[in-house]
Design goal:
CATH topology: Alpha-Beta Plaits
Shape: globular
Order of helices and strands: EEEHEEEEHEH
Strand order of the largest sheet: 4-7-1-8
Distance between the termini: 22 Å
CATH class: Alpha Beta
Structural class: alpha+beta
Number of helices: 3
Helix content: 25-40%
CATH architecture: 2-Layer Sandwich
Strand content: 25-35%
Length: 119
């Protein structure tokens, strides 16, 4: 699988406690992205954050599981990301979804210099 040099980064901000059916929302998103053959997905867990409600979510010692922030990042071609958006919309109840254009320098084993034209 190859990603074009000009791609999109889909970034999805949810809470650790958000669900899609019986499973965590972030897990459902990653599994659906894999099922739809997107190039890859990464889940990042934040130690602190807040969203629309301004309620602070933190991993302080006395509050270890307070619905910590989760970010799912997916990079692929614009066509594949845009095809995924309606599926994502059906899965999410709340959260923040952003898109940004990115330049892919390396995906897989090609060297950075080779992909960026520096070689």
């Amino acid at each position: 699988m190859q990603i074009p040099k000009d791609a999109l980064l889909l970034r999805i901000f949810v809470g650790e406690g958000d669900r899609c059916g019986h499973q965590p929302l972030y897990e459902a998103i990653v599994l659906k992205a894999r099922e739809m053959h997107l190039a890859g997905a990464t889940v990042l867990r934040g130690p602190m954050g807040f969203g629309r409600s301004s309620r602070l979510h933190t991993a302080k010692i006395l509050r270890l599981s307070e619905d910590l922030p989760i970010v799912v990042e997916i990079v692929d071609s614009e066509e594949k990301i845009r095809a995924f958006l309606p599926v994502l919309d059906a899965m999410m109840g709340s959260g923040l979804v952003t898109l940004e254009k990115v330049e892919v320098l390396q995906y897989g084993s090609a060297g950075l210099q080779e992909r960026s034209g520096l070689a």
